[in-house]
Design a protein that fits this description.
The protein is an alpha/beta fold. The chain contains 15 helices and 14 strands. It folds into two domains: 167 residues, Aspartate Aminotransferase, domain 1 (Alpha-Beta Complex), CATH 3.90.1150; 244 residues, Type I PLP-dependent aspartate aminotransferase-like (Major domain) (Aspartate Aminotransferase, domain 2, 3-Layer(aba) Sandwich). The strands form three sheets. A seven-stranded mixed β-sheet has the order 4-10-9-8-7-5-6, with helices on both faces. α2 packs antiparallel against α11, α3 runs parallel beside α11 and α12 packs parallel to α15. The radius of gyration is 21 Å and the shape is globular. Bound molecules: ligand KE4. The site of ligand KE4 has 20 residues, from α4. Ligand KE4 binds next to α4.
């Protein structure tokens, strides 16, 4: 039975009066797939319920943070306990130390760390720090990688930029973009065309997940690490998605490569607003108040957000958590590939299917995907109670709360949905 969405439709009309495009973040507007977004009433484990009572198996997980599943009892308890003692102090507090310990244990390259309130703040601050440390203005990113919406990084960006095909955002002064060089992903020869002596930093998603999921070719990250090291440029690994997702120590643990600076977000906040950047102490100590690079934040280190992050990372430290996640993701991924024709990719609990016949190795090949076909698949799945990312250029996120029953229901829905294409 096709679900009804009367109350979501009513709320949507009101939302359009308040918010540009009816949303507080563009991808939520369903522009990439058409139709009206549903309004979520509540979520628990692997499931979302919308305001009309429709239930969905959730493969977006708030875009990454909900690796334990929604409303995990330990996370809820941590937030309640913290709130009872006050919601913000604007002073140092013990919870920020505990979260820093948990993050630094997992990321040894983060000799010093600073908490902020989003992934965007983390990457924006890391870029400023890299420029301050190297005294160079130019930065380098890769086409289709998304690092949040700071001006310098909205150049050939992924995520919303990829979805709306407006990679260079309006409102970014031309001379900002002039200092941001972009290269195609996985293009070894392109790395040799750069005058690295003038580059402050290269920033990359070590597991690119904002133009769909596109693994780096073997050796690409190693070459980027070497060429930055050899020329005094910093390597910033943006692990906002991959951190504590693909391994406890993120892609750096998987690939055995140390960043000069790392940016984190999503999972480390357990669903509350947290970002972090950190790395070499000689670089981080340039930050105010110890150095000349200014960075600040009223709610940085917020006790509730720290509490949610601590509970999440402590749950993830239980033995077998990542093995269980991998088993669950493999049982979905293996069958999914057989059912959903296209170019399917899975890296741990991240997955994506490009609706294209060609091999996807970079932004240009990702853009050959048939977004109309993806949109039909998305809605066919949604009508069957499975919520995938509302854009071909995002990824699916599996959580520890997804059960074998969820996966059986998902695969059954996928087989029916493919038949409708
Ligand atoms: P936030 O500012 O949205 O917390 O983080 C920005 C960011 C930085 N780096 C990476 C690798 C990211 O994926 C993100 C944000 N991811 C998108 C989803 N692809 C957030 C969803 C949204 O924009 O609503």
């Amino acid at each position: 039975m096709t679900p009804t969405h009367e109350y979501s439709e009513k709320l949507w009309q009101e939302a359009l009066q308040h918010f540009p495009g009816g949303v507080n973040s563009p991808v939520r507007a369903f522009r990439g797939v058409g139709g009206t977004p549903f309004f979520t009433q509540r979520a628990k484990g692997s499931r979302l319920w919308d305001v009309d009572g429709n239930e969905y198996i959730d493969y977006v997980g708030s875009w990454g943070p909900m690796i334990l599943g929604h409303a995990h009892p330990q996370v809820v308890r941590a937030v309640q306990e913290a709130a009872r003692d006050g919601t913000s102090f604007g002073t140092p507090n013990p919870r920020e130390i505990r979260l820093a310990q948990l993050v630094r244990e997992a990321f040894p390259s983060m000799q010093k760390i600073r908490f902020v309130n989003s992934g965007t703040e983390a990457t924006m601050s890391a870029i400023r720090l890299a420029r301050g440390f190297t005294k160079r203005d130019k930065i380098l990113k890769f086409e289709g990688c998304y690092h949040g919406h700071a001006d310098a990084l909205l150049v050939k960006a992924g995520s919303g930029g990829a979805t709306f095909d407006v990679p260079d955002s309006a409102g970014v002064p031309a001379d900002f973009a002039r200092n941001t060089l972009t290269l195609p992903l996985n293009d070894f020869a392109a790395l040799d065309t750069v005058n690295w002596r003038e580059i402050a930093c290269a920033i990359i998603e070590p597991i690119p997940a904002n133009m769909g999921l596109i693994p780096l070719k073997p050796g690409f990250l190693e070459k980027l690490r070497k060429v930055t090291q050899d020329n005094g440029a910093l390597l910033i690994l943006d692990e906002v998605i991959s951190g504590f997702r693909v391994a406890r120590g993120g892609a750096q643990e998987l690939f055995g490569i140390q960043a000069d600076l790392t940016t984190l977000g999503k999972i480390i906040g357990g669903g509350l607003p947290v970002g972090a950047f950190g790395g070499r102490a000689d670089v981080m100590d340039l930050l105010a108040p110890t150095g000349p690079v200014y960075q600040a934040g009223t709610l940085s280190g917020n006790p509730l957000a720290m509490g949610a992050g601590i509970a999440t990372l402590e749950e993830l430290s239980h033995s077998g958590a990542y093995e269980k996640l991998e088993r669950r993701a493999a049982s979905l991924g293996d069958e999914w590939k057989k059912i959903v024709k296209g170019h399917s990719v899975r890296i741990g609990s991240l997955f994506c299917t490009f609706f294209t016949d060609c091999e996807v190795v970079d932004y240009a090949s990702a853009k050959t995907s048939d977004t109309k076909r993806y949109a039909k698949f998305f809605h066919a799945m949604l009508n069957r109670g499975v919520y995938l990312a509302p854009s071909q250029f995002e990824v699916g996120f599996l959580s520890l709360a997804h059960t074998e029953t969820d996966i059986e229901e998902t695969l059954r829905a996928a087989a029916e949905a493919v038949g409708k294409l």
